[in-house]
Structures are given as C-alpha cells and as structure tokens.
Specification:
mainly alpha; 4 helices; 2 strands; elongated
Length: 91
C-alpha cells in the first residue's frame, strides 16, 4: 500500500516540529536525491520494502495500460518498470 512514511534521515526543518514524509512508492527516488551517501536503519528499510502482493496488485491494475475499472493509465507499465519493482521488492 502506498503510504506516507517519515524520513528518518531528513533533518527537522526550522519552524516545524516534524520530519518530512514521502510516499512509500516514491521513497527510493527521495533517498537517491536527498541522501545519496546515507543508509538508514534496518527497521527503516523494512518499512520501505514493497511486497510481492503489492507488485502483483500494481501489475494487475495496469495490465496493458488499462486500470481494472476500465480507465486508461497515463502510461502503460513497461517491462523495465516491472523489473525495477521486482528488484525493490527483493531488497
């Protein structure tokens, strides 16, 4: 499930009381852009893991670029995206 996750690597911005949050499915990009040389705790990375069930649900919803309700996706899922999702799942 694409949920909001607090980034334990981000600093609390001045004037705020909480760290920034990012969507789970976008977190890999956030880490690459904002924290390229930092790791995180094992617990943190466990929260970011995308399960096989999530990947299957995403692929079912976007099969051939058509959502299960019959609406068109903006872009069909490419084979390379499926491979990337599978790689993220195994981390």
């Amino acid at each position: 499930m694409n949920i909001l996750i607090v980034c334990e690597l981000c600093q609390i911005p001045p004037g705020l009381k909480k760290r920034p949050v990012c969507w789970k499915y976008n977190f890999d990009e956030h880490l690459k852009l904002m924290h390229p040389s930092q790791k995180g705790s094992t617990t943190f990375h466990t929260k970011l893991a995308i399960t096989e069930e999530e990947i299957e649900a995403i692929l079912k919803q976007t099969d051939g670029g058509i959502l299960s309700e019959g609406r068109k996706c903006k872009k069909p899922v490419q084979k390379s995206q499926e491979v990337e999702l599978a790689k993220r799942m195994k981390r």
